[in-house]
Amino acid sequence: MRIRWENLIPLLVVVLIIVLLVKLRPFFKNLFEAINEPHYYHGPDREVLKILIIGIICFTVLGTAKFLSKK
């Protein structure tokens, strides 16, 4: 019996995402609370965080598009 990796890899990716979301829950909670603060977008230390958030969003969109285009 052969392992069908094309069926197993998406399941492993979903499990990995769920585990990361659970482990990073405090980070996301603090991040989304801080976004609502008026002074969040200003300041020299926030530039890197804004670029990081934009990069994560772009990476997610590209990954989703690539995954959906294979089917």
**Mean of pLDDT:** 78
The number of helical runs is: 3
Strand residue percentage: under 5%
What letter string, H or E per element, gives the SSE order? Answer: HHH
In helices, the fraction of residues equals: over 70%
User: What class do helices, strands and sheet pairing give?
Assistant: mainly alpha
Low-confidence region ranges: none
Largest sheet: none
Q: First CA to last CA: what distance?
A: 24 Å
C-alpha geometry = elongated
Oligomer: single chain
Strand segment tally: 0
| Backbone CA Rg | 17 Å
Model description:
The structure is a single chain. The chain is mainly α and 71 residues long. The protein has helices at 5-23, 25-35, 47-69. The protein starts with a helix and ends with a helix. The model has no long low-confidence stretch (mean pLDDT 78).
Please tag this protein with its features.
71 residues; mainly alpha; 75% helix; elongated
SSE map:
Elements: H1 5-23, H2 25-35, H3 47-69
Structure, briefly:
This protein has 71 residues and is mostly helical.
